[in-house]
Design brief:
Blueprint: E1 7-17, H1 49-66, H2 82-101, H3 108-118, H4 123-126, E2 135-137, E3 152-160, E4 165-176, E5 182-190, H5 194-209, E6 212-213, E7 224-236, H6 244-253, H7 257-260, E8 262-263, H8 267-282
Antiparallel strand pairs: 1-5, 1-7, 2-5, 3-4, 6-7, 7-8
Helix pairs in contact: 1-5, 2-3, 5-8
C-alpha cells in the first residue's frame, strides 16, 4: 500500500558549531590518531543523518514528556518490554479475528490506529517497528570546501575513579571538528498531522536557540550547535486546498526548491506559531 502525498515540508539552514564536535568514525576509520572523526570518501568531516535524527528524537521526546503528552513511556520500545509484548499479542489477535472470522483484510490504517493507542505520540513521527518514520535527515556536509587542516587533535587520559587521578600509560588522543565550522542542514517531513508538525517545530526550536547537542563527549562541553538561516518550504496537496492542481503542477514540473514548493517568508515565526498552538492544546 502506497501513501498519498498530501502535506510536505522542507526545513533547511546552516548548522554552526558553537563548540568542538566529535563524531567517531568507528573501526573502519583508519588514521594517525586513536579516535578519528567520521569523514567522507574525499576525507572531509560530515555529520551523518542518523546522528542528527537520534539527537533530534531524544530532544523532542524529552520535551514531549515534559509537556505530559499521552503515553510517553520510556521503555515502550525496548526489546522484550512488557508493553511491547502486550502490543504484539494484541496485534496478532486482532489480525486473526479480522482475517479469519470477519473476512476483513487487515490494513495499514488498522496498524496505525493500534500504534497510536500503545506507543508514545512521537512513535509515528520518528518511526517504530511497525510504521516508517515521517522525518528524513540528510547528511550534514561542510558548507564550504574547507581544508583538512580544520581538524584538530586533542589529548585525553583515562581516569581512575577511585583515586580520581590519571592512570599511568593510558594516554590517548582524538580528533574534533573545531567550533565555528558550518554544515548544511536539511530535514524533510512527509504527511504530518498538526501535532506531529508541532513536535517537529519543538525540536527545531531547540536547534535555533542553540540548546542542541551532537556527537560524543557532550558532558565535557563538546557538540553544542545552532541552526542558523532557517528556511521553511511547504507543499499542500490536500483535497481541501483550492489551489491543489496548481501546487501539484508546480511540484511536478519545477526543478528548484523555490519552483516546486512555497517558501514561507518567516521560518522562525512558523515555528513560533505551531509551538503556541501546541501549548494551547495541551494546556
Amino acid at each position: 500500500m502506497f501513501a498519498k502525498m498530501e502535506r510536505y515540508y522542507l526545513f533547511t539552514g546552516d548548522l554552526v558549531l558553537q563548540t568542538a564536535l566529535h563524531i567517531g568514525g568507528g573501526d573502519a576509520a583508519m588514521g594517525a590518531t586513536d579516535n578519528p572523526v567520521i569523514r567522507t570518501i574525499e576525507g572531509q568531516p560530515f555529520i551523518p543523518g542518523s546522528s542528527l535524527k537520534g539527537a533530534f528524537r531524544s530532544t523532542v521526546e524529552k520535551l514531549a514528556a515534559t509537556l505530559s503528552l499521552p503515553n510517553m513511556d520510556w521503555d515502550v520500545l525496548e526489546t522484550g518490554s512488557a508493553r511491547l509484548r502486550e502490543f504484539n499479542e494484541e496485534l496478532n489477535n486482532c489480525r486473526k479475528t479480522q482475517c479469519h472470522e470477519t473476512k476483513r483484510t487487515w490494513t495499514d490504517e488498522d496498524t496505525i490506529a493500534m500504534v497510536k493507542e500503545y506507543f508514545p505520540e512521537t512513535a509515528l513521527l520518528f518511526g517504530n517497528p511497525y510504521t516508517a518514520s515521517k522525518l528524513f535527515f540528510a547528511d550534514a556536509m561542510l558548507k564550504d570546501e574547507q581544508a583538512l587542516a580544520l581538524i584538530e587533535r586533542r589529548d585525553g587520559v583515562a581516569i581512575d575513579r577511585d583515586s580520581e587521578r590519571a592512570m599511568d600509560a593510558l594516554k590517548y588522543d582524538y580528533e574534533v571538528v573545531p567550533s565555528s565550522t558550518c554544515f548544511t542542514f536539511e530535514l524533510r517531513l512527509e504527511n504530518p498531522t498538526d501535532r506531529e508538525l508541532a513536535l517537529t517545530c519543538l525540536g527545531l526550536s531547540e536547534m535555533v536557540s542553540g540548546f542542541f547537542g551532537l556527537g560524543g563527549k557532550r558532558s565535557s562541553g563538546m557538540g553544542r550547535c545552532m541552526l542558523d538561516n532557517l528556511q521553511v518550504y511547504a507543499l499542500d496537496l490536500t483535497t481541501g486546498n483550492p489551489n491543489r492542481a496548481e501546487a501539484l503542477r508546480r511540484y511536478l514540473t519545477g526543478t528548484e526548491r523555490e519552483d516546486k514548493m512555497e517558501r514561507l517568508r518567516d521560518g522562525l515565526q512558523f515555528i513560533h506559531d505551531h509551538l503556541i498552538a501546541l501549548l494551547k492544546e495541551v494546556a
